[in-house]
């Protein structure tokens, strides 16, 4: 048994980011053609495009502001007319900002997290799920975070956005399930990426000590779960929030 995405089209938002780039490679390695979304990093998008094509897959790069309805709809038209309607959508993009306490956090940071964590998923659903409904097939996957369960000081804007995202995903899963579309969330912990490897910061004694597996996860481990949820091996999983954090948070029943 293996993850086989042959013949599927996957779209990854924030594809040039630290986690997104590994998702793109992994989905392509599993056989999918990939739409590589970016906002500013065109150079990385083009490099990823070359990597995907070197695997014998089709690839398309597209620029869009995923918080803007018109921008996403323009992206949709380009994607559908160039490669076809995606079978798999991975909403990975998020706006970065500096964390501080509720009393000190600028109001615009709460607005940015609402736009990138909530509105991105609403707009992407409006753009691409109708095509999934027509096909009676689809995988809609969002990247959440372990922070949604931790609620630590200085996380308020991020957690507010991601918890709002969680509500959208759970309700959407119930609304579109009859069409054989699954809607799931992957919640990474503090993940090792290329940035850490280049800086030599893979280890954190304080963080690692709190994790049951006693280490940070890797970008590849996150991408593996995304690929699983994108596949037919996960055809009966929907509405799930799946932490990929070595047991650092554990949803209870």
TrEMBL record:
* Keyword hit for Oxidoreductase: yes
**Keyword tags:** Oxidoreductase
Q: Which InterPro entries match?
A: NAD(P)-bd_dom_sf, SDR_fam
Q: What GO molecular function annotations does the UniProt record carry, in alphabetical order?
A: oxidoreductase activity
The biological process GO terms on file are: bile acid metabolic process
Cited SUPFAM superfamilies:
NAD(P)-binding Rossmann-fold domains
Recorded superkingdom? Bacteria
Q: Which family does it belong to?
A: Belongs to the short-chain dehydrogenases/reductases (SDR) family.
- The protein's name is Short-chain dehydrogenase
Q: What species is given as this protein's source?
A: Clostridium thermosuccinogenes
> Lineage of this protein's species?
Bacteria, Bacillati, Bacillota, Clostridia, Eubacteriales
